[in-house]
């Protein structure tokens, strides 16, 4: 049988190429998703671990701050070999070319004989009190080099001139690195500098847990102690929230890609093995047992699965290396990530691809062994005109639909992504199971028009598409998978983005709020802000400070007519009208008043009665400019509220605003644009992943549709020859197959988009329902994208029919009728 297996593989290599390609694509994309996530997680873990190398225990503030007494007690521990305090002073640095100083955190250097410390990429570390080393990326951003001098100042208006003697190597730092100076210099800059942690190295023979327990016993109760390993894990979790989200998305895509490949492989092997029924029967006639035939098919499937899966893993590793190399060109707030391969990301896709191929071959192999040898050697009968799906298949399909639908609903209601994914997979299997009834019915529906106006080829195409339901469903399923996958991705991303936007509008209703401290805005300030690229609206605000018993509260006035152009929350903007005041929660608690209460604001000899409405993300008290004029007719313009272009780079806009209006000494820039920008980067990454998924899905769909169409053309060789003999031209034959393929593509597109909407919406609810403040989820319908998806599906169906149609048209009628 070994010779038979090898000769069979060589003889049917062309038919198996499509199945191999589906395996390669599915396994490759699954490997890509798993390797990228593994590499990103491993890279951040290694980076943070390197920062705390040599640390066996860490003491951090919890409900109390770390004081000198705590550090002294830790230094006296007999279990401690080295104790260093991680201290940071927050100053302002006047970089060249900037209008006003920016915040610069400066860490104090410490003893690095036992515990790892910062290193330099250029120059040296500071040794004198008038020296400093800047993070390399920060120095490059502001074009500062070693040897230059900088003026730094504290928040109590003390300033010092320091020399940059080195650049701290921050190439592997997570987030923004700090500058460094000597401990004495940091104490001069800020005597009460913040001690963010104390790192402790253990004596020989002392375990990390023993050291942590000893440290916890001597420090204040408001401090928390970790072992070195536990603290690294704690820091990794704090930094990798974004990676975990992407990991969940990547993992979902990996599962879906392998699921897609399994279904395409199953369809391909079903038809390939069915085409070889007579060959297997001939083996039975020459002495092969049923067991030998069955095992030979499984052996062929194993060879195909292992080889194709191995190629897929290599393909996935290459794509991962390319993707990680490209990621270094973007600033995602994480250090450069090296390629990291682990056993699960390599062998799991290999195993799944092989097992999927084996499972796909089991049912056709069993069917082939049950055919009597002599019956299989007789001429093959054309398919019945009205093939019906088995009752058991229909029952199973409807059960899967019902069970999957319940799991989908449960996942959305309970906000559990895994339950939702399981429900989606089961319900989709149910759709495929009832496809032999559902797809022909839909084809009859949409095929009514071409059947009436498309002539004989169109009528034959509609009849062919519905007379063999199993073959039609198998052909359509490949494209249905791709369209569903793409649709749910686009709908999911659009819905998550809309949910996020609405949530952001509630938490941060204004993009940027520019305020001058102890100063008024100059006459040309509004125009200066208008001229900044990315700013779309500028609305001036006036402020007045009113006094309570022991507090001073600012009252902001904004023009009612223009407030809606900068306040993104329509409900909040609608509440701003004469006689009302929008008050934030902290001020409500301080004043001990409830939402909806009537209060009177008094300023000088003026009074204003207003109704309180709770507001989030605005100033302590916000009223209309008309109401503010009643309290202070000559209140000056002290700031502006800005709206930005969603397509603009938020970081660049914030930097430009912070350096605007040079005549104002102290300019505060707050608002939700920074938060919105950080999340927009994540959505951009997801969109790139979605585009890649689109390409992979279209490829897999083209492979599946083209393969099943090609094999169905071979199956209908005599039928097509008879049509040619009865007068159907080659052009009409090609048009018939094109119409048949287009009908199946349109059904797959319509059904896939409908399923994509359901899966996308329920997935959004499962993923985001527990993430928003009020638990609300917004559902989006990206109409343009869905139309493009339908058009691409139709074109894909037509392209998949080109080669089979050409092959069918080239066969001579007389020769084809003589076959079989």
Question: How would you characterize the overall build of this protein?
Answer:
The protein is an alpha+beta fold. It contains 28 helices and 19 strands. The strands form two sheets. Strands 1, 2, 3, 4, 5, 6, 7, 8, 9 and 10 form a ten-stranded mixed sheet that branches. A nine-stranded mixed sheet has the order 15-16-14-17-13-12-18-11-19. Helix 2 packs across helix 7 (228-239), helix 13 (391-414) packs parallel to helix 26 and helix 26 runs antiparallel to helix 27. The chain is globular, with a radius of gyration of 35 Å. The two termini are 26 Å apart. Mean pLDDT is 82; it is low at 381-389.
Count of runs of 4 or more consecutive helical residues: 28
In percent terms, what proportion of residues is strand? 15-25%
Percent of residues in helices comes to 55-70%
Largest sheet: 10 strands, mixed
Parts with pLDDT < 50 across at least 5 consecutive residues: 381-389
Note the gap between the termini: 26 Å
SSE topology:
Blueprint (H helix, E strand, L loop, with lengths): L1 H10 L1 H39 L5 E5 L6 H8 L4 E15 L7 E7 L11 E4 L7 E5 H6 L7 E5 L5 E10 L10 E3 L1 H7 L4 E9 L5 H11 L4 E5 H12 L1 H35 L1 H9 L4 H38 L15 H27 L3 H4 L14 H24 L2 H17 L1 H19 L1 H13 L1 H39 L4 E5 L8 H6 L4 E13 L4 E7 L1 H4 L6 H6 L4 E4 L1 H7 L6 E6 L2 E9 L6 E4 H7 L5 E8 L5 H9 L8 E4 L2 H43 L1 H9 L4 H39 L14 H28 L2 H6 L2
Parallel strand pairs: 3-8, 5-7, 13-17, 14-16
Antiparallel strand pairs: 1-9, 1-10, 2-3, 2-6, 2-9, 4-7, 6-7, 11-18, 11-19, 12-13, 12-18, 14-17, 15-16
């Amino acid at each position: 049988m070994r010779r038979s297996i090898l000769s069979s593989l060589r003889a049917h290599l062309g038919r198996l190429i499509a199945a191999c390609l589906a395996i390669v694509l599915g396994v490759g994309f699954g490997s890509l998703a798993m390797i990228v996530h593994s590499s990103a997680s491993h890279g951040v873990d290694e980076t943070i671990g390197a920062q705390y190398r040599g640390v066996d225990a860490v003491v951090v503030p919890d409900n109390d701050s770390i004081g000198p007494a705590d550090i002294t007690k830790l230094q006296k521990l007999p279990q401690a070999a080295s104790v260093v305090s991680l201290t940071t002073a927050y100053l302002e640095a006047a970089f060249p070319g900037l209008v006003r100083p920016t915040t610069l955190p400066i860490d104090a250097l410490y003893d690095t004989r036992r515990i790892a410390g910062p290193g330099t990429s250029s120059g040296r570390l500071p040794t004198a009190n008038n020296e400093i080393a800047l993070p390399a990326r920060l120095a490059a951003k502001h074009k500062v080099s070693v040897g230059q001098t900088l003026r730094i100042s504290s928040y109590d208006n003390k300033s010092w001139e320091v020399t940059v003697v080195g650049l701290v190597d921050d190439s592997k730092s997570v987030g923004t690195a700090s500058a460094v100076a000597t401990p004495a210099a940091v104490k001069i800059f800020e005597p009460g500098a913040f001690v963010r942690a104390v790192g402790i190295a253990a004596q020989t023979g002392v375990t990390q847990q023993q050291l942590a327990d000893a440290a916890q016993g001597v420090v204040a109760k408001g401090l928390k102690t970790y072992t070195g390993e536990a603290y690294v894990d704690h820091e990794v979790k704090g930094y990798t929230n974004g990676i975990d989200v992407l990991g969940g998305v990547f993992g979902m895509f990996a599962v879906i890609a392998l699921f897609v490949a399994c279904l395409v492989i199953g369809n391909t092997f079903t038809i390939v093995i069915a085409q070889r029924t007579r060959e297997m029967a001939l083996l039975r006639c020459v002495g092969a047992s049923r067991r030998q035939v069955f095992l030979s098919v499984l052996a062929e499937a194993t060879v195909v699965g292992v080889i194709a899966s191995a190629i897929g893993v290599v393909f996935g590793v290459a794509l991962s290396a390319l993707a990680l190399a490209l990621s270094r060109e973007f600033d995602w707030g994480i250090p450069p990530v090296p390629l990291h391969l682990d056993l699960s990301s390599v062998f799991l896709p290999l195993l799944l691809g092989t097992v999927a191929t084996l499972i796909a071959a089991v049912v056709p192999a069993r069917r082939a062994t049950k055919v009597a040898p002599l019956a299989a050697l007789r001429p093959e009968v054309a398919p019945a005109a009205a093939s019906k799906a088995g009752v058991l298949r229909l029952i199973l399909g409807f059960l899967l639909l019902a069970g999957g639908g319940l799991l989908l609903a449960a996942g959305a209601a309970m906000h559990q992504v895994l339950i939702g994914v399981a429900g989606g997979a089961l319900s989709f299997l149910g759709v495929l199971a009832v496809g032999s009834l559902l797809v022909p019915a839909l084809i009859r529906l949409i095929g009514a028009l071409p059947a009436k106006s498309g002539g004989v080829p169109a009528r034959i195409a509609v009849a062919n598409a519905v007379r063999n339901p199993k073959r039609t469903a198998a052909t359509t399923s490949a494209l249905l998978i791709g369209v569903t996958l793409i649709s749910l991705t686009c709908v999911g991303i659009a819905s998550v983005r809309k949910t996020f936007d609405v949530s952001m509008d509630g938490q941060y209703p204004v993009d940027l709020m520019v305020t001058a401290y102890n100063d008024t805005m100059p006459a040309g300030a509004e125009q200066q802000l208008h001229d900044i690229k990315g700013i779309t609206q500028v609305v001036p605000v006036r402020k007045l400070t009113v006094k309570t018993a022991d507090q001073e509260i600012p009252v902001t006035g904004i023009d009612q007519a223009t407030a809606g152009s900068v306040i993104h929350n329509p409900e909040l903007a609608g509440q701003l009208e004469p006689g009302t005041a929008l008050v934030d929660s902290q001020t409500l608690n301080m004043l001990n008043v409830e939402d909806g209460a009537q209060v009177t604001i008094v300023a000088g000899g003026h009074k204003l009665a207003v109704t309180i409405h709770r507001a989030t993300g605005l100033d302590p008290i916000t009223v209309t400019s008309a109401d503010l004029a009643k309290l202070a007719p000559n209140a000056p313009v002290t700031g502006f509220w800005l709206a930005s272009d969603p397509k603009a780079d938020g970081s660049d806009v914030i930097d430009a605003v912070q350096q605007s209006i040079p005549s104002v000494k102290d300019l505060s820039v707050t608002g939700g644009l920074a938060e919105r920008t950080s999340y927009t980067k994540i959505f951009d990454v997801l969109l790139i992943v979605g585009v890649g998924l689109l390409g992979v899905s279209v490829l897999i769909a083209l492979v599946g549709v083209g393969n099943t169409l090609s094999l169905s053309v071979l199956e209908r060789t005599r039928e097509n020859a008879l049509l040619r003999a009865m007068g159907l031209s080659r052009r009409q034959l090609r048009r018939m197959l094109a119409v048949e393929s287009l009908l199946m593509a349109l059904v797959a597109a319509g059904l896939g988009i409908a399923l994509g909407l359901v899966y996308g919406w329920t997935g959004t609810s499962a993923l985001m329902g527990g993430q928003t403040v009020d638990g609300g989820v917004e559902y989006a319908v990206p109409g343009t994208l869905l139309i493009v998806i339908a058009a691409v599906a139709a074109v894909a169906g037509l392209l998949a029919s080109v080669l089979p149609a050409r092959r069918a048209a080239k066969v001579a009628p007389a020769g084809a009728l003589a076959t079989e």
